[in-house]
Amino acid sequence: MQLGQEIAEDVLAIGSSPGVRVTWSRFIFTFVESYLSRRLANGVIGIAGFGHESPLHALDPTLNKKFGVRLSSSTRSRGVIFIGSGPYYVYNPKKVDISKDLVYTKALPKNVTLVEPPMKRFGVCFSSKNIRSTKVGPDVPVIDFVLHKPSAFWRIYGANSVVQVKKDVMCLAFVGRDQTWEPSIVIGGYQLEENLLVFVLPRKKIGFSSSLKLQQTSCSMYDNIIQA
Question: I need a surface site. Which of 8, 35, 40, 46 has the fewest CB within 10 A?
């Protein structure tokens, strides 16, 4: 039922983890401004907020203001959002809780601005003729993003660090940016593919995995979640 030009009311039902269906009969939606909708990916028709003030957390205390996100590396399968405390199950083919062995770091509040800077070309490219494939992508040196302490690092494997731009040519999947901007490093969607990120809002921390391909699973092999 539409209430006005900027808000609407409808039934919202989501599957929280571990497998509990939560439903709100009169959930209030707001419409996305047209300038924002033009920046969404093809096929995307809206945005769901999961921040501290999100009604998705406020309306049901069982969700515990905790959620996990995984982006698929395949154009034929969807990403996934795990809502609630877990466990977060996938299959490989047996059921595995992928939220057990995460590294956590502090989440610092930042104002986020939606921008459309022009995409730069990859700056480092090389021949891929003699690079073999592994279960975590091309066999190239790993990259460690070290966070608040040496033991808290995010390990990036070839599947998330290089991209095949044409036959026999790979490029490092990072681009330079204006160092006057903050933060100085932005983790892109390509680096997030087949990784698990868990946001624990009350404790202001983020948990992350390395590539879940190490566990021989993928984002399409999920259980008890809501698709993203």
Answer: 35
